[in-house]
Amino acid sequence: MSEKKKVSVLAGFKAFLMRGNVVDLAVAVVIGAAFTNIVNSVVKGLISPVIGLAGTQSLDAYKSCIKDPCGIGADGKATGVELLWGSVLNAALTFLITAAVVYFLMVLPMAKYLARQEARRRAREGVHETIEITELEVLKEIRDALVAQRGANGGGGVAPGSRDAF
Questions:
Q1: This prediction's pTM
Q2: Which residues contact 71 (CB under 8 A, 6 or more apart)?
Q3: Exposure pattern of 127-149 as b/e (b: 16+ CB <10 Å)?
Q4: Band (86; pLDDT cuts 50, 70, 90)
Q5: First vs last C-alpha separation in the chain
Q6: Which end of the chain has a smaller Cβ tally under 10 Å, C or N?
């Protein structure tokens, strides 16, 4: 490969890596991996033991045999057909618990924070708009007063509020 082609390929690769969306995606993956550890720790360390008080911490042992005999044969192979419904239930509960932890510990507080920020921004803009409207009204009143004064002093018969007053 020629030297010029190597440089252009490397320059293109560098440009690809420096795009905002690629860097943002990389940061999101790293933060997501770190956050996964936090969520898993909360689920395993806090929520699963509380659920374990009512039953067992692991539902993986629950199963049903749909074709007898279920177990391990003399040759060491599994016999029968088992439905491992405990594993499915465990996965579903883990998903629901993880989703609840993410929602209540991250999404809901962030949404409340953003709503407060938006309310503050709107309040600042609302005051600014009120001031502008009030100033406009005051300027109209001054204009009307000047036009009325001019009319009382015999200076041209321009009606208040017309654009020709000034």
A1: 0.46
A2: 78, 79, 80
A3: eeeeeeeeeeeeeeeeeeeebee
A4: confident
A5: 77
A6: N
